[in-house]
């Protein structure tokens, strides 16, 4: 998700360049780097996310044999994609983890800008693992953080132009791009850097037949939840809370598009662009992108789950069954977070009974993930205490 700056009237000159100062960016360095650990992220990919990606999602990358070179070495590339509807953002998690798995130099890797709703509330972190989004390299999607990422130029960035409306659009609007935010256009123009679009296919089937009921969405947003998917998985999550965070085994496919040179599509200085002009430009790009998305869906989206490849992958990786099968995700991820030691590296993650007991003792609420109905009371209490403590 990418947030726009304060709303401007249509006739007002765009002034964002004057709003974010170099001093603000310098002071924001710590926020940008808060909790992020490259060794942690790489180990988390090796021991957890790679197994989930290789088996459950069988991720395919079309056109990503080599990542596009930067057109402007002084600025990051801006990767952008459509959000899949009504599911926990596994599409983004899989994409980022598999790019990181290539062990690229950090400058060529990608960090994601995500909605603060995912980081602000404990129950929106995967399986209640505190600050996991930040540890894995994500950044709150504020304009200051976006500007900081562009200025520091330590890695490429990933954004979701539709914002939270993209992931919460409902199954009835699958593959229908929602209106774009404009901040990613602003940054592309300001820093004269390319936008690299890619299409996420089959992610719409992570949680199929789930819909956005607006009265309910309005209610849950008061509790910090961006939306509530009304569907089968939501019903099952009442009885097994861990299901709230999982998805069905859709075969995720990422199809790269042609770079978008936004800075070549404007005929006036950056400072003189109005919000209305940026929205018109964004709509033009969205319509063209929509055609590419539907074409990619037609080619790669006919077998949503591809059960044959799923069974084949499960058999091939049967030794790691407990790492990729969804009921084990809460414990496996928590086990990693509790026991990982950067100094000991992979040695610290060997599975032992003592470490399993240590995980439960240090994070007893992990058991709540498997308690029907009652588990949600423990989750709500624990989340309320964490929010209160932060305040």
The level-1 CATH class of the domain at 16-216 and 249-319: Alpha Beta
- As a percent range, the share of helical residues equals 40-55%
Question: Looking across the biggest beta sheet, what order are the strands in?
Answer: 1-9-6-2-5-3-4
| Elements, N to C (H/E) | HHHHEEHEHHEHEHHEEHEHEHHHHHH
Question: Could you list the spans in which at least 5 consecutive residues all have pLDDT below 50?
Answer: 1-18
Distance between the termini: 24 Å
Mean pLDDT: 89
Tally of strands: 9
Q: What form results from the Cα inertia axes?
A: globular
H/I helix tally? 18
Q: Return the CATH topology of the domain at 16-216 and 249-319.
A: Glycerol-3-phosphate (1)-acyltransferase
Structure classification: alpha/beta
Let me know the largest β-sheet: 7 strands, mixed
As a percent range, the share of strand residues is 5-15%
How big is the Rg? 21 Å
